[in-house]
TrEMBL record:
Organism: Candidatus Chlorohelix allophototropha
Presence of keyword Transferase: no
Domain of life: Bacteria
Biased composition, class Polar residues, residue ranges: 43-53
Keywords noted in UniProt: Plasmid
Protein name: IS66 family transposase
UniProt xrefs under InterPro entries: DUF6444, Transposase-related, Transposase_IS66_central
Disordered: region residues: 41-91, 372-392
Length: 482
């Protein structure tokens, strides 16, 4: 073999080795990325992601630490706190007098002596000795007219439609136990049977729920109308299973109003059909999902989400800028709270400029630590290269900074969207109780009734009284607290 042939062979071998090394390097990069993704997934819990606390398990992670600063107050009730202790009744149902029979000093018989006017009362609050349903029989009689001899029969009240039926109070209690206390149908039947010795079928409960749903049509319209007029609206959505298929639960709420709706879609088709956001002109607080941003209202982002994402970047990826950004948001939140407590309506221009400058500096540090990815997808895939979680977070914080800091510019806007998340939580509990909603009607029944009860609870109303009035045909309308 000539020298030229040997050189060509070596060059060919070198090219093959170089190609093999490049292929292995690409494979190693993919494996490293996959390992990091899996490690990140394993390290996520409720404190550094949007996973619910119920997914954390029973082991408490040492990484979970509160961002709240100590108030310096002792645990428990504070001075001036109104207690909830049991208080004596001014009109007891039963009075039992305990009289001394003999003198405790000389043992003289006191049975015939009159008691002194002063006494010491102690009261025991107890259930009635026997719980039973109160049965009211309605009887219609007939009368014969002395003039024309016509026999006229009286009519039953409009609310008495069947030979035998449950009254509005009993139906209100059953609906309350199912839709607010979230007891399964079978357990409600068992509970009411144990208390009142009255056999009840799940089918009867379904009819009660359906009747309540029909009666609450007008109150639900009132709630939706009021929500379109509020200054600040909390919005959120979560997965919901209906008839074994994935649907979406949409909530729109304020501290005084709640509306639930389920839909097969998550996006604008659902929110347009629900009809609250298209007519809303105030400030919508949400988690930054793009569907909300298409509506022409003011937008504010939930910073509780940002704090969890920043905790992940700092704890798992060891990027210091994330911890500093967390401190920035918490410091700004505390300064807003202090200013609001002093009845101020805004921060000074100098303080806002100070925080905005810190904000920009930290964004620059984060972008320097997380440059945009180069090239396309590995293995010849088309499209833009996938960005890392920190880069996605930084892009949101950078491009939507006014929405992130809206709580500092407007004191009527909250720091987070926890209100909507709390309103959603109990519906998720209901789904865990039942597994899924068995029908479209059942999901609609629950959403309307639960939204009404949540609203009345926020407004300080007694829920059983509200349901009683509902079954009497006069459901109380919510106050329009906008």
């Amino acid at each position: 073999m000539t020298l030229e042939e040997q050189l060509a062979q070596l060059q060919n071998d070198y090219a093959q080795l170089e190609a093999k090394a490049a292929s292995q390097a690409a494979l190693i990069a993919q494996l490293i990325e996959r390992i990091q993704t899996l490690e990140a997934r394993l390290s996520q819990d409720s404190h550094n992601s949007s996973k619910p606390p119920s997914s954390d398990g029973f082991k408490r992670s040492p990484k979970k630490r509160s961002l709240r600063k100590s108030s310096g107050k002792k645990p428990g009730g504070q001075p001036g706190h109104e207690g909830q202790a049991l208080k004596q009744s001014e009109n007891p149902d039963t009075v039992i007098a305990h009289l001394p029979t003999t003198c405790e000093k000389c043992q003289t018989d006191l049975t015939k002596e009159a008691a002194l006017p002063h006494f010491e009362p102690r009261q025991v609050f107890e259930l009635p000795t026997q719980l039973k349903l109160h049965v009211t029989e309605h009887r219609t009689y007939s009368k014969k007219c002395p003039t024309c001899q016509t026999v006229t029969k009286a009519k039953f009240p409009q609310s008495v439609k069947n030979w035998v039926q449950y009254g509005p109070g009993f139906r209100a209690l059953a609906v309350y136990l199912i839709t607010y206390q979230l007891l399964p149908y079978a357990r409600v039947c068992e509970l009411l049977n144990e208390i009142y010795s009255e056999s009840l079928s799940p089918g009867s409960l379904v009819n009660m729920i359906a009747e309540c749903y029909e009666q609450l049509a007008e109150p639900e319209k009132t709630i939706k109308t009021a929500l379109t007029q509020v200054k600040v609206l909390h919005c959120d959505e979560t997965g919901l299973y209906v008839e074994g298929k994935r649907h979406w639960l949409h909530v729109a709420s304020t501290p005084h109003l709640t509306h639930y709706a389920h839909h097969l879609r998550r996006g604008s088709k659902a929110t347009d059909e629900i009809g609250i956001l298209p007519a809303f002109q105030g400030a919508a607080i949400h988690d930054g999902w793009s569907n909300y941003l298409r509506y022409a209202c003011t937008h504010g982002l939930c910073n509780a989400h940002h704090l969890r994402e920043l905790a992940f970047v700092y704890e798992q990826l060891k990027q210091a800028w994330a911890a500093e950004f967390t401190t920035l948001l918490v410091d700004l939140k505390e300064e807003v709270e202090v200013a609001r407590a002093r009845s101020e309506t805004s921060l000074s221009s100098a303080r806002l400029a100070h925080f905005e400058e810190r904000y920009q500096q930290l964004i620059a540090q984060g972008l320097a630590a997380n440059p945009p990815p180069q090239g396309g997808w590995p293995c010849g895939k088309r499209g833009k290269p996938r960005q890392s979680k920190p880069k996605n977070l930084l892009d949101r914080l950078d491009k939507q900074r006014h929405q992130v800091l809206l709580f500092a510019y407007r004191f009527d806007v909250p720091f987070d969207n926890n209100l909507a998340e709390r309103d959603i939580r109990m519906v998720k509990v209901q789904q865990k109780v039942s597994g899924c909603f068995r029908s479209q009607e059942g999901a609609s029944f629950f959403c309307r009734i639960r939204g009404y009860l949540s609203t009345m609870k926020k407004q300080g109303e007694n829920l059983l009284v509200a349901l009683l009035d509902t079954f009497c045909g006069q459901p109380p309308l919510p106050k329009l607290l906008v």
